[in-house]
Specification:
The structure is a homodimer of 264-residue chains.
Chain A (H helix, E strand, L loop, with lengths): L12 H10 L7 E2 L1 H8 L3 H14 L2 E3 L5 E3 L1 H7 L3 H21 L2 E8 L2 E8 L14 E3 L4 H8 L3 H9 L13 H14 L2 E4 L6 E9 L5 E10 L5 H21 L1 H4 L7
Antiparallel strand pairs in A: 1-3, 2-3, 4-5, 4-9, 5-6, 7-8, 8-9
Helix pairs in contact in A: 1-2, 2-3, 5-9, 6-8
């Protein structure tokens, strides 16, 4: 489900450096030099030279066994991404409130191309198991957050998703384009989405859009609960209120939410 | 307080690419092309060419006004850093518990060189204001997490910190090396740190070490409360228990904490 450029597709040094970073995936977070070279489609010598530069800067680190992994320094720079931790910081107080009131799974996601990227999740210890990974991706047409993001995506994005085969994760996944189109219209009309057993049969997710100041949808928030535990209509106001709060915080700008200075 | 390489210090293309990324800082998350070029020490033409490659890959994004910012794709790759979100994912259930019990500020940090890097924070809405930024840095000798990380750092790191001028953030900051050395010995003996008014006068922080399987200190956890609200000795067991839980989760490996598959 992860978008990957063709290994070594670019010939520029920049693209080789990026290919090295792209060699790391959720199921391969630590790589030997030869794995790194193979996965990024460059020679062993090139991988060795570039990786040494990346290690020196801190974009990569080496463990005791000499294996490479993504470095904390890259994570620090990446934490400045407005759509990553920037969004997450603005949203966190509202996500916390949602969690405290429900003790269910709370998720925050954005659309990247034709997929959902999860930016934050708070997992209730006793809530229905949800194995979303922060930084992980998923299809747009099945999850609560995905349905919201798809419903408010540009027409071209919707057509591309609806025009491709829609994978059925469970018997309840809506994989008929006409049916999905009606669902998306409902999401826009009601102001929230419901994904009932469409990813795993035992879970129900209610999602709502976070509007940016310009009226576009910047993100989506959801609650995920056991499929038989609650009526979606009871959860929707909670999720929508949290989404509105996050939208307001975003409009105020990150500097209002987290003034610079005095950490401790 | 941020470590910065000399702009354009390296002459390789790799170092120029990294210099472009490093141009972004907490107080400059969106940059025009000329700002990007100036801050990274490369020519306008070079900045333009490299930035275009970074935008194409998704390491940078451009906003409606054409300004550059760190892209979500870089954040996705960086989320694979074991010391960033990897640690954070393992720690989150324990941080949540700590927050639910206290409703105070909960922080998770690691040492990077001579500084603290904050990996997670959960902020109580009514708790004493703490303006730590996830991904942000701070001095080792003042904060609760910093004192823990310094107390357990290699001797060479301790000597370097103690040998340099120790900035006094408040009148209570310990900036005398001999006094600080005794404090660090206490941190090791007691198993927790106390930073009482040493960063801001109204806040008190209690920190505890997260031990890795090899016995080294991988991270530190802290609670930050109002300076006059609680005895540190009452908070210490809570913080230490959370730190031990995180250490156990780390030893079990990320795959045990977040099995792959079925996100929703």
């Amino acid at each position: 489900m992860t978008r990957r450029a063709e290994p070594g597709a670019g010939t520029s040094v920049t693209s080789k450096v990026l290919a090295l970073l792209e060699a790391f995936t959720p199921d391969a977070t630590e790589l030997s030099l030869s794995e790194l070279a193979r996965r990024s489609g460059v020679s062993l010598a090139t991988a060795h030279r570039r990786a040494a530069e990346l290690v020196e800067w801190g974009a990569l680190e080496r463990d005791a066994a000499g294996r490479y992994r993504v470095g904390l320094r890259l994570w620090e720079v990446a934490s400045l991404a407005p759509r990553g931790l920037g969004l997450r910081d603005a949203a966190m107080p509202f996500l916390e409130d949602l969690y405290e009131v429900t003790h269910e799974n709370v998720q925050l996601a954005v659309r990247e191309g034709l997929e959902v990227v999860f930016v934050e999740r708070i997992a209730g210890r006793d809530a229905v198991p949800v194995w979303t990974r922060v930084g992980g991706r998923f299809a747009l047409h099945a999850t609560g957050v995905g349905l919201v993001l798809l419903a408010h995506a540009p027409a071209a994005v919707q057509e591309e998703v609806l025009g491709a085969p829609l994978r059925a994760f469970t018997p309840k996944t809506v994989s008929d384009p006409a049916h999905l189109r009606r669902m998306l219209a409902d999401v826009r009309k009601l102001g929230y989405s419901v994904s009932d057993g469409q990813v795993t049969v035992d879970a129900l997710s209610v999602g709502a859009p976070v509007f940016a100041a310009d009226g576009s949808v910047a993100a989506a928030v959801s609650l995920v609960v056991r499929a038989d535990s609650t009526q979606p209509s009871a959860l929707a106001p909670l999720v929508m209120a949290a989404a509105r709060g996050i939208g307001r915080a975003l409009a105020g700008g990150p500097s209002r939410v987290f003034p610079a200075g005095r950490p401790r």
